[in-house]
Every structure is written in C-alpha cells, then in structure tokens.
Amino acid sequence: MTAFTRTLHLESTRRIAAVSVVAAGALLLSACGGDGDDMAGMDHGGSSSSAATTEAGAKSGDFDNADVTFAQMMIPHHEQALEMAKLADGRASDSEIKDLAGKIEQAQDPEITTMKGWLTSWNQPTAMESMPGMDHGSMNTNGMMSHEDMAELKGMKGAEFDKMFAQMMIDHHNGAIAMAKDEQKNGKNADAKTMAGDIVTGQSAEVKQLQSILDRF
Q: How far apart, in whole angstroms, are the C-alpha atoms of residue 202 and residue 200?
C-alpha cells in the first residue's frame, strides 16, 4: 500500500468514526426528547384528573350564604302555603281552588323535606330565629301572611273564602318567586338553584291561574 493510499484509508476511517459519534449523539438527544414528551404527557394527565376530581367535589356539596338563606326562609314560607291549602278542605266552593290547593300540597311538602335535608348536610340550622316581617302589617315583602290574615281566612267559607284564598296565595306566591329568583342569581348549590327554577316556573303558572279565578268574581 502506498503512502497516498494509506492516507486516504486513514481519513476514510476517521470520517466513519465521526459520523458514528454524531449519529449516536442524535439518537441520545432524540431519546431524551421522547422522555421529556412522555413526562409532559403524564403531568397533563395528572392535572386533568385532579381538576376533574375537584370539580366533582365542588358539585356535590358546595353552598354559600344565599343557599342557606333560601332554604331557611323558603321552609316556613312553604309551611304557611300548606296551612292555607289545607284550609280549602271544607271551606272552598270553587272546584279550581280545591284542585289548586291539592297541587300546592303535593308540590311543596316534599320540597320542605328536601330543603331541611340540605341544611342538615350543610351543618346549618333548619330555621331562622324569626321570619322577618311576620309580626308587622298584613304581610311582608316575601308574601308571608300575618296571624290575623290567617285567622280571617280560616273564618271564611264559600265564595268569600275562594276570593280571599286566591288574593292571599297570589301575594304569597309572588314572594316565593322573588326569593327563588334571588337564589338563581346569587346561590351556588346546583340542587338549590334547580329547585329555585322549578318554583319560579310552577308558581308563576299558578299565579296566572289564581288571577283568572279572581277575574270571575
């Protein structure tokens, strides 16, 4: 082998070795990059899982002061509506009033039980110390009737009862609707807000029905 040939052979060997080193380095970098991507993916998955868990927990029992106030005030409000509805038995003469009184009992009695359950699960009192406005005037801004109003309704019968019942229940329902709308706006608990929506829908329809009854007198 000539000196020139040996030189070419040596340079070729060096080039091959250099290429091998570069290729190995590239493979190493690629492998490191792959590991990084995998870890990033793992972190992403962990974050999503954590967020989902947090969201599920938030939906299950989250509540705020508006939810508590809604339940605490709506319970006695519903209880008075039930008291009024029960007076219709033996006093009302209008078949539509009798039917509506029955529907009020069927709808609101279970809601009372549900709201008491919420307050118990939230470790909150199931009743306020007093219902604002109960002892002042004929009714307060929430449509609650005074003891005098209830006694007067109890003493009526026939068409007089029907007319006063319709008038009182319209005011009572409008108070509940206002409270429910406030819960829809300011509440946090999903179940409470759903019930508030049902109250707005159901009692708004009943107000229209009661008004149509009044229009007959």
A: 6
The reported pLDDT for the residue numbered 141 is 64
Alpha-carbon dihedral 82, 138, 93, 105, rounded to 10 degrees = -10
- State how far the Cα of 20 lies from the Cα of 32, in Å rounded to an integer: 18
* Residue 206, token pair as written in the block: 């009943």
Residue 197 neighbours by CB under 8 Å, 6+ apart:
180, 184
Burial class of 146 by CB neighbour count within 10 A (0 to 12, 13 to 18, 19+): middle
Prediction pTM value: 0.69
Statement: residue 50 has pLDDT above 70: no
Does the structure show a pLDDT above 50 at 78? yes
Residues with Cβ within 8 Å of residue 173, at least 6 apart in sequence: 81, 143, 203, 204, 206, 207, 210
CA 129 to chain centre: 25
Distance CA 163, CA 214 (A): 6
Instruction: Please count the CA atoms within 13 angstroms of the CA of 163 that sit on its side-chain side.
Output: 7
The pLDDT value given to residue 128: 80
Closest CA to 149 of 130, 166, 164, 162: 164
